[in-house]
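Ticket #4471: structure export looks truncated?
Reporter: QA, pipeline team
Priority: medium

Steps to reproduce: submit the single chain below to the structure queue and open the exported record.
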Amino acid sequence: MNAIPTSFRNVSAFSAPRMGGPETCIVVPCYNEEARLDTEAFRAFLATGDVCFVFVNDGSKDGTLERLHSLRAAAPARVTVVDLERNGGKAEAVRQGLLTSVEMGAAQVGYWDADLATPLSAIGDFTQVMARFAEVQVVFGARRMLLGHRIERTFARRAVSRLCAALARQAVRLPIGDTQCGAKLLRNTPLLRNALAQPFTAGWLFDVELFTRLSAQMADRRHAFYEQPLAEWTEVAGSKVSARAILRSGITMLRLIARTRLARPAVAAAPVALLPIVAPVRKAA
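Actual output as written to the record:
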């Protein structure tokens, strides 16, 4: 999949300062989320913390964009809206959002599923890990069914998750337990910027591809990745991922693993040319 041209990438103006940037910025990809987007939960979280959000409208056909602009109006200093006029898929929506977060100068950038299967309160747990362990580059949610934890997943979800984790262990060469939880936090470093330089090719398994790109550049991969057991995760109906998409992504991932095993080339260290922010185009009255 090719990157979305800048002419199809509109970003609402934000008042967050570029110098230094926010400490933490979370990307929320949105495709036809009008009915599922819990704007009240986001508003409540925005009122209590200092985390910034980049909402990416991935070519939605419903009223998602209007709901996102209402969130920005409620907290203009901490909400940015990226409007992709063409649907490019979750992987590209997340990548575009992360590029915007990197450009804003956030020290830590991440992404969170719009359905809030992982509650926003878990963001604080992730940032604490980053603060405690300087060597950690990636914190990602692990939906482990531990005693006392509120993890609600169907058998089918668990089966798919185990398959994805098996692929991830082969690709990243680490004992990863869960890659597909939609809650990730990453340090804004040259390694991350290099990993985001090109569009992902693994579709629904882009998380594994991102981990693979990062690990290929790391001398100490084992201490760079941190699985954060979630205290709460609830499966939300309305997933847009089909069985066919899972199969296609799995085949692509196997090809990537084969290439990685045969030759593990380092990701190019050339500076990443970040996409410029484009002001929303206004039609003349």
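Status: closed, not a bug. The export was complete when the record was re-opened. Leaving a note from the reviewer for reference: DSSP finds nine helices and ten strands in the chain.
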